[in-house]
Amino acid sequence: MRDTAELVRCGFERISEDLYAAAGEVPRIHVEVVDAGSAAGARVMVAITPWTLVGVVLSADERFPSSLVIGGRRYLVHTHELDGIGPYRAVALSGTGAHFPSQVHARKVARTVAPLLLAAVARARGHPLAA
Hints:
Helix content is 32%, strand content 31%. It has a five-stranded antiparallel beta sheet. It has a two-stranded antiparallel ribbon with strand order 4-5. The protein has 131 residues and is of the alpha+beta class.
């Protein structure tokens, strides 16, 4: 069975391929997933995409806030669906991903924000991780 992070990566890769093929472009940043961990039954990841960093929250629990506070700033939470994953919560963590000068820089930003996203999800779900 494929790992959940790999399924998320493949889902966003399909979106990226469709977007960039339609535009006749090749993205400078490729899709990659940074696994932040789990909090109160929710799996939390950051997907690096050519267009943005996406906080991905996988949880079977239908109750989830409409926004999260990350680093003192409020981010809207949207519900989407990916083939192979099903419904997930998404948080746009940055503007257009093309502003990252390299994949290494995008990965560094994703690894920096991942624990902040995990803590925000924990707080929102009343989990002790946020203490």
